[in-house]
Specification:
By secondary structure, the chain is α/β, with parallel strands linked by helices. It contains 31 helices and 32 strands. The strands form 10 sheets. It has a 6-stranded mixed sheet, covered by helices on one side. It has a 6-stranded mixed beta barrel with strand order 24-31-28-30-29-32. Helix 23 packs across helix 29. The longest helix is centred in the N-terminal third of the chain and has 14 residues. The protein binds ligand MGD (2 copies) and molybdenum atom. One ligand MGD binds next to helix 25 and strand 16. The site of one ligand MGD has 34 residues, from helix 25 and strand 16.
Length: 753
């Protein structure tokens, strides 16, 4: 491995070079490349990368390195056919690295695993669906779980939850449970809508951005470019992050020819405040406390807004006053002076956007922190105002849409009633189901019999990953609908099915008819997505087709739902979606007709119109105490984060270009002072052990310690290499979201240097 201090800007020439190399590596024939130009256009496919919106009408070449890598990874012409599996046992497959598994290519044929022979073999689709019917109807529906990752389309997600609920099961864990669940929960309580309130237009009018717990240069490059543009037009950008992520320090827009020629970038953040991991709530309290100190000057609050639209400001004033600056400084890692500086910038801005991502949601007090973000915004009426708002920047490209489609364990009464009236005679299960953490609990206790997944890599994404993978293999039956092979698939149940599906980029044609699907981005734009490449194999079926066929086999009163008609015509699925959205989400009126005519529609966001669908009918200031996680002072706090060259559990390479780490992912970033205290050398191998209160040992070994600009007491390692340290018993109270980014650990040398 090697460490280099990167001199080139984030973005720029190297971003283009990396995208080109991804096309080459994936053996994509050159004649296909023009089709990339269509992605993100209204007529093309929705980029399978992140969920930050694209500008309508712009081609994907306008997009980013990361989107292009995701596309190349999916469009690869490599295939994992039946030959690949012949004579392999799951144990043998597990010897391959995450990258090798996925890099074997696209799944092209349905595969069956049987414990009796401990081998994989080919199976026909008809046999596979029959098998699903037999296995599923033999178990109690409560012993099944239907996981969904955020890559699938609205149509597939809608059918997925319909299959589960009509089968009699509401155990619908989803990748949101691991991701932005706290954002939706927190926002819904205080502003009445669990989604972001901004549009791209707001990005062009904001005077101040506060970017919290987010690394957009690697994970949302389109947002990085928008921030860069904002800075160039004079907006201020403040960042809260334990790391000085490269994109904020030096960024060149790959669209800018001059930047490409000179290879020079710009500073994007005016200031990076290196908070402690988990320190944001204290920092926000400090900022708000400083604002109340200035209250008499009458410049900093929007009292017209506060009086007309909010409740609870007195509570907030009293609550922040209770904290001493000393206490806030200790927890946040920022000085009083720094918190006052942020307050000054906020007071001076007429339009502020606060964005956040996993650095906030993967914390103990994620819901409280997000509600303090809202507290801050409400003080100056920064919701429902041009250039202002709250934006949880979503992860997967359709994770927001999957939720809008009800593909989750708890849905509203209204949604359930709509399902019942839309599909009369179907026996819809009205229970509250188990989320991901509850499903993990039942897996670990050997109570789950069947685990089905619509995409994703559940066993690797989950906390306690090694134990969850083993537990999956103890299930009676597992079914994975996937584009590519991953580690979870190497842990099949006694009987396991691996079903190859079409991705976004593939042309979806059946009986001569071409179908399209829809997706929803982080700003509630729903767009049509049509694949452009001929599928690698006739054996790959679309997600809606596979899911509808499963429904036909396992739903109670299956004949009351027109599964085959929906599989043949997604327009019909969209009509049912519209019917189920009545009184739930506004903006779906004439869905099918408008999406056909316009290619995209925007869903309404009541909070952005200053209509507050909260219990009080107002936007609510909410207060929460500061709660320290139970953690001895001698330990470190470790965050598990993404490198520049991965998409979640899909690891493209061992390099993290923007952080200057090359050739290895088993690394831990640590402050030099901490290395000195521990007597560990920069570059030395260490073991990392999590402190546990459940008698489970969680340890990873032979990680390289790298001296890095990170606050003392804080550590960073990559997900999923360090995921074995994360306990599934460690999650926030309200939404059960795992604490992936505040693991109490100790370090010890693994070998003498
Ligand atoms: N190319 C690419 N794009 C992606 C993904 C990908 O893996 N690759 N994943 C997608 C998905 S599903 C998601 S959810 C998003 C993830 O996008 P991010 O949330 O940007 O991803 P992480 O690497 O988890 O980064 C968390 C950031 O939060 C910081 N952080 C950690 N703890 C704290 C804290 O306590 N406070 C503060 N203020 N900061 C903290 C870390 O230093 C890091 O910069 O990206 C999406 N887009
Ligand atoms: N330690 C740690 N763990 C984490 C996180 C962390 O920061 N730290 N982040 C968490 C977060 S934010 C998230 S969102 C989760 C992600 O968890 P998941 O969503 O479960 O994982 P992904 O890596 O996105 O799933 C990748 C797999 O999806 C399949 N796939 C890709 N495209 C498609 C498609 O179009 N259709 C179908 N059917 N399958 C497809 C492929 O087989 C691929 O291998 O991980 C969580 N886990
Ligand atoms: Mo995510």
């Amino acid at each position: 491995m090697s460490i280099k201090s990167p001199s080139s800007p984030a973005g720029g020439r190297k971003a283009i070079a990396a995208a080109v190399s991804a096309f080459r590596q994936q053996q994509i024939p050159l004649q296909i490349i023009p089709s990339f130009m269509h992605a993100n256009k209204t007529i093309g496919f929705d980029c399978p990368g992140c969920a930050f919106p694209d500008k309508p009408g712009k081609p994907l070449v306008d997009s980013c390195e990361q989107g292009q890598k995701a596309i190349a990874w999916e469009m690869t012409r490599r295939a994992t056919g039946v030959d690949f599996f012949a004579d392999k046992t799951p144990e043998q497959l597990r010897q391959l690295s995450n990258t090798e598994l996925e890099n074997s290519g696209r799944l092209t044929t349905p595969i069956l695993y049987q414990r009796t022979t401990n081998r994989f073999s080919a199976i026909t689709w008809d046999e596979a669906f029959d098998l699903i019917g037999r296995e599923m109807t033999a178990i109690d529906p409560q012993q099944a779980a239907f996981y969904a990752s955020g890559r699938s389309s609205n149509e597939a997600a809608f059918l997925w939850q319909l299959v589960a609920r009509s089968f009699g099961c509401a155990n619908l864990p989803d990748s949101s449970n691991f991701c932005h669940e706290p954002s939706g929960f927190a926002l819904k309580q205080v502003i009445g809508v669990g989604k972001g309130t901004c549009t791209l237009d707001d990005f062009e009018h904001a005077e101040l951005f506060i970017v919290m717990g987010q690394n957009p240069a690697s994970n949302h490059p389109r947002m990085m470019a928008a921030l860069h543009e904002a800075r160039l037009r004079g907006a201020k950008i403040l960042v809260l992050n334990p790391l000085k992520e490269k994109g904020f320090v030096n960024f060149a827009d790959p669209k800018n020819p001059i930047a490409l020629l000179t290879n020079n970038g710009d500073e994007v953040a005016n200031e990076i405040y290196q908070v402690n991991i988990g320190g944001d709530l204290a920092a926000l309290k400090g900022v708000i406390k400083a604002l109340f100190d200035r209250e008499t000057s009458h410049t900093c609050f929007d009292y017209d807004f506060i009086n007309a639209h909010t409740s609870g400001i007195e509570l907030l004033r009293d609550e922040v006053a209770q904290h001493s600056w000393k206490a806030l400084e200790t927890v946040s890692g920022l000085s009083e002076h720094q918190m006052r500086d942020i307050a000054d910038a906020y007071a001076g801005s007429n339009a502020t956007i606060v964005s956040w991502c996993m650095g906030i949601t993967h914390q103990w007090q994620s819901v409280a922190t997000i509600q303090y973000i809202v507290n801050l915004l409400l003080l100056k009426g920064n919701i429902g105002k041009k250039g202002a708002g709250a934006i949880p920047v979503r992860g997967h490209s359709n994770v927001q849409g999957d939720r809008t489609m009800g593909a989750t364990s708890i849905v509203s009464e209204k949604w359930l009633n709509n399902l019942i009236t839309t599909f009369p005679g179907a026996q819809i299960c009205g229970d509250k189901g188990n989320n991901a953490i509850l499903v993990i609990r039942s897996l670990l206790q050997n109570e789950l019999k069947a685990f089905l997944s619509l995409g994703g890599n559940f066993g690797v994404a989950a906390p306690d990953s090694p134990r969850v993978l083993e537990a999956l293999s103890r299930c009676r039956f597992t079914v994975h609908i996937a584009t590519k092979l991953n580690r979870t698939h190497c842990y099949p149940g006694e009987i396991g099915l691996l079903l190859p599906t079409l991705g976004r980029t593939d042309i979806d044609q059946r009986d001569g008819q071409t179908q399209f699907v829809t997706t929803e981005d982080s700003m509630s734009n729903v767009r049509a997505s049509r694949g452009l490449q001929m599928p690698l194999s006739m054996q790959q079926l679309s997600e809606p087709t596979i899911v509808a066929n499963i429904g036909q086999k396992i739903a109670r009163n299956a004949q009351t739902i027109p599964w085959q008609n929906m599989a043949a015509d997604y327009g019909l699925i969209r009509q049912y979606i519209e019917s189920c959205q009545h009184g739930v989400t506004s903006g779906f009126e004439h869905f099918q007709q408008r999406i056909l005519e316009q290619g995209r529609i925007k869903l309404d966001n009541a909070a952005a119109l200053r209509q507050w669908k909260t219990t009080s009918g107002k936007a609510e200031f909410r207060v929460h105490p500061l709660k320290a996680p139970p953690q001895p002072a001698s330990s470190f706090t470790l965050m598990t984060i993404r490198s520049h060259d991965q998409f979640n559990t899909t690891v493209y390479s061992d390099n993290d270009r923007y952080r200057g780490v090359f050739g290895d992912r088993k690394v831990v970033l640590i402050n030099q002072e901490d290395l000195n205290k521990l007597g560990i050398q920069n570059g030395q191998r260490v073991n990392i052990e999590a402190l546990s209160d459940d008698n489970v040992q969680r340890m990873v070994s032979d990680f390289t310690a790298i001296a890095y600009d990170i606050p003392q007491g804080n550590l960073a390692a990559y997900y999923p290499e360090a995921s074995a340290l994360v306990s599934s018993a460690s999650h926030n109270e309200e939404t059960h979201t795992p604490i992936y980014k505040a693991v109490a650990v100790t370090l010890s040398p693994s070998t003498p240097r």
